[in-house]
User: Fold this.
Amino acid sequence: MATEAKRPKKENGSTDDSMEDPLKNFLSWCDKVKLTLSNKVYLSKEGTIAEYGMLAKDDIEEGHVLFSVPRHVVLRDGMSAIKEVLEEGKGSLESSSGWVPLILALMYEYTCPESYWRPYLSLWPDFKKLDHPMFWSKEERERLLKGTGIPEAVDTDLTNIEKEYKDTVLPFIGSHPELWDPEQHTLELYQSLVAFVMAYSFQEPVEDEEEDEVSSPPMMVPMADMLNHVSNHNANLEYTHDCLKMVAVREIRKGEEIFNTYGPMASWQLLHMYGFTEPFPTNSNDTADIQMSSVYTAAVQGTQSEAEKRLLVDKWNMLCEMDMVREKGVFVFGKNGSLTDTELYTTLKVLCMSKKEFEEFQENEGWEEDDGDDEDSNMAQALSFEGLPALAPQWKQLLQAAAGFTLGLYSEDVESDRRLLEEPAALAKLNSREARALHVRLGQKTILHHLQQLTQL
Assistant:
């Protein structure tokens, strides 16, 4: 990835004001709105892994509050200057994403010269720094990300965004011409703001969340979104009644970058939702998906008669009724083995049952004696990378074949990508998109390749 031009620094670690007007204005605004920043940290474009970042000016102890954001500074639809209009029209703004009110508020605030949040939103003058795969050409996505699941996810995103804009947003802004103008508040701007929300928003945890309760809507938290992400983070956002606080979760040394966490995100999720990746192999949360249908295909290949095929169909239908498998469902593997233990274990067990065993299983309507936590622990152990070699041969055969089908979806094999990563001259020729795609592919392929090795007969 191309490096930023070096900027002259002052003794306190900040950069020349004349070169940093948006950041200077943002920090002045923070003072005015009582967003307090510790004197042990500073914002910078130099020495960070992305456009902006936060660095430690001095050694920082665990528990130190790095900054505090008052609730009135948080940008959400209920705080916007147009909150009353959004509240009145909320019945017509319902959508599958649930983001329409916030994005309408952002569309207004982003283009309003007098917006309370203008110094904050001016940090993103045109959203060109956002480089989610939704902004890549379809050819780039197919060429660089084939097999990762991202091209399909982006196609769905783009279809949903366009539908949401045309069916929900456009009629609403058309009925409020004093606030929005379709010539200015376009589908392109809406798509950019969706990516902005994907990359920078926060969702406050819901206390005592019930199973059917809707999660809290996203919100923009100035300063908090300046921190970059790594899985091995050193800070975390805490929510209180009056403010949101970024707190050090371990000791941070002078000169270290301050990292928040967006949660246990695999590299493909980071690229899809945030537009960046952690370099391979540093992401401890990397995962690879195997389509549930691939396990079924592997089982079909093992049948030798029409009777066996009919029995297999009955088994799969039973698994569908039990909600263990779905048409577009996936079995997820992490760096230590299966992350969908119950679904995968039950699927392998049922598919490998004899006719008599399956008939008994059907009579019990899928119910078996439940050993509780012990059963869950046994499943997890059996499907961990440590436990896979001890699986029954028929189980291993299904996993081996399904992993092979999945690896066959990529354009290149794992060794080709690995050689590319290990060859400095070839790696240096990659642009930023090619490099990020390589990290995603290798993260997934390495897990799948390891799965294949452990299930060899």
